[in-house]
Amino acid sequence: NGKKGDKSRGALVVLEGLDRSGKSSQSRRLVSYLEGLGISAELWRFPDRNTSVGQTISSYLSNKSQLDDHTIHLLFSANRWEKRSSMEDKLKAGTTLIVDRYSYSGVAFSSAKGLNIEWCKAPEIGLLAPDLVFYLDLPPEKAAERGGYGGERYEHLDFQRKVAEKYHLLRDDSWKIIDACLPIEDVQKQLRDLALDCITTCQSGKPISQ
Ligand code: DGP
Ligand code: NA
Ligand code: NA
Question: What is the DSSP string of 55-74?
Fold first, then answer.
């Protein structure tokens, strides 16, 4: 907040998109790039499968267990809530977080199953608001052509089409739509430039919001 002695904060940057849209590799590369510039940055991802909630989610995604749609929705949200305070601590300490999936995945994937979209948004209220969201925009058919759907629960073309429609409804001012059909290097270049601008804005005193 610009007070004397305050350390400038890090930025909360989120990558969203369909399965196979390139989020994971783009976010890894973005973190390496920022670190190379001497900027404190960490790669985070949701679901975080390391916690006990995350292990329940992982078992559900790999079809080893069944859960009611509402129940799993709340567990995905709980998995973000259990990380909220450490995210805030990191940001306040000046570390930029590059986050592979966040609340938008939560709402898009669950509402694509037919759950009420407002109901889906409710448990996300009060989580930290991203400063910047990259949506890696790839037609579902193109994503499917990339292959490597790992056989997890949601990795089917029909379902991914529905998820794409829901994502479309969620766009807001924090979003930058990135054409993920472009070569990897071109996508990465856009992410780098936009992330650096965002980091500068956050350093110069933009408050963390919810
Ligand atoms: P990933 O580890 O990024 O491949 O994500 C695993 C799968 O879970 C992927 O198909 C997207 C989906 N997913 C991610 N976050 C959420 C969420 O909050 N809610 C629901 N229902 N699905 C999610
Ligand atoms: Na996946
Ligand atoms: Na991913």
Answer: HHHHHHHTTSS---HHHHHH
| 134 phi and psi angles, rounded to 5 deg | -95, 125
Tens of each residue's pLDDT in the chain, 210 residues: 444 445 799 999 999 999 999 999 999 999 999 999 999 999 999 999 999 999 999 999 999 999 999 999 999 999 999 999 999 999 999 999 999 999 999 999 999 999 999 999 999 999 999 999 999 999 999 999 988 788 899 999 999 999 999 999 999 999 999 999 999 999 999 999 999 999 999 999 999 999
- Ligand 1 close to Cβ of residue 154 (< 6 A): yes
Ligand 3 centre to CA of 37 (Å) is 25
Whether the complex's predicted ipTM is more than 0.90 is answered with yes
Atom of ligand 1 lying closest to residue 23 CA: 3
Domain annotation for the chain: domains and CATH numbers: 12-203 (3.40.50.300)
Atom of ligand 1 nearest to the CA of 100: 3
Which residues on adjacent β-strands are paired with residue 182? Answer: none
pTM (predicted TM-score):
0.96
Between the CA of 6 and the centroid of ligand 3 the distance, in Å, is 35
- With CA atoms as reference, report the closest residue to 26 among 104, 168, 134, 170: 134
Distance of CA 97 from the midpoint of ligand 3 (Å): 16
